[in-house]
Amino acid sequence: MKKRFKWEPPALMALVLLLGVWLVVAPGRIKGREGAREIDVRVGSSRGIVEVYRPTADATPEFRVLLRNGFTGPTLSGDEFRRQYGDEVYETATGASANWLFRIFNITSWASLVWVVIGFAGQIAFSGRMLLQWFVSERKRESVIPEAFWWLSLIGGVALFAYFVWRQDIVGVLGQSSGLVIYARNIRLIYKQRKRALEATEQPAGGT
Questions:
Q1: Over the stretch 184-205, which tens digit does the pLDDT of each residue have?
Q2: Which residues lie across from 48 on neighbouring strands?
Q3: What is the DSSP letter of 145?
Q4: Could you give the CA distance from residue 90 to residue 103 in angstroms, rounded to a whole number?
Q5: Distance between CA atoms of 151 and 178, rounded to whole angstroms?
Q6: In this predicted model, what pLDDT tens digit does every residue of 110-162 receive, in sequence order?
Q7: pTM reported for the whole predicted model
Q8: How distant is the alpha carbon of residue 199 from its chain centre?
Q9: How far apart are CA 118 and CA 123, in angstroms?
């Protein structure tokens, strides 16, 4: 009997892909004025940009905050901007922040560091799955994909997907979208096969 084609996995892949693209592009995508310098910032719990704009090369810069939640602030001078948003946001906008850790990871707050940790954790899980597969294969002297490989793939994929969405990195989102479904599907197939094997061993005893 010919097995029917499972349409659910590719449909779910497409759904995850569209969700990732929408999360990166659609909600609150902001763009400042043409020619303005844009610096990513976090004001409270909202992410956005500070638009630093010079009408002419020798003009005093103007500052404006645009957040992903739709907020558009008024145009402010440097002193007004510092008074309203504080020294930390001002230093970030002007590139004067002394925090080397923020500069290395291209973040603007300690809360953002949590997302960097999530990204690193996902990458570690991804690297660890390959080391695990290699180690198990070497022990058995044949190519083997252990169940833990798929669990590490799924955990790492979810973490990286969330990180890339936060970063608004469409390339990273596209790279993880299809993988999440494949990892979850393989885990489901493993458990279904295990269940069938268990039922097959119990059937003779139940039939006597």
A1: 999 999 999 988 888 888 776 5
A2: 41, 67
A3: -
A4: 15
A5: 15
A6: 778 899 999 999 999 988 999 999 999 999 999 999 999 999 999 999 999 99
A7: 0.64
A8: 40
A9: 9
